[in-house]
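Recall that a protein's primary structure is simply its ordered list of amino acids. Everything else, from secondary elements to tertiary packing, is in principle encoded there. The following example makes that idea concrete.
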Amino acid sequence: MYGLAIFAVHLSDIQLIYQLGLSLIILIEGYYRYYHYQLSATAKIRFDPNVKNWQLAINFTADYSPIHILPSTVLTTQLILLHYRLHSNRKQTLIIVKDSLTRSQYRLLLTMLKINAIKMV
């Protein structure tokens, strides 16, 4: 994706110095997103009814960490933008698209979030 953006910049009719500057900005943005947001990370989320909290594990190797789901979370039939806060008080976002789960798993997650996350807010 970033390669296509750089290619488009070099096809544009702007001065070479501006092309190089824009290309540098695109490269810095790509580096920042790759190393700070872990684009290749996978996540598992679950609700623990015993302690009544949501838990999240990143990359399947980490243990589940308790999270607090924020009221700014967006729930739609095609997409879930899960805004949550870890114990470190850092706000993060997890994007869950409908195609990433089976139909029944997505429906169950959506229902569980509507029922349990709204109660807890």
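The first helix runs from residue 2 to 11. The chain has three helices and six strands.
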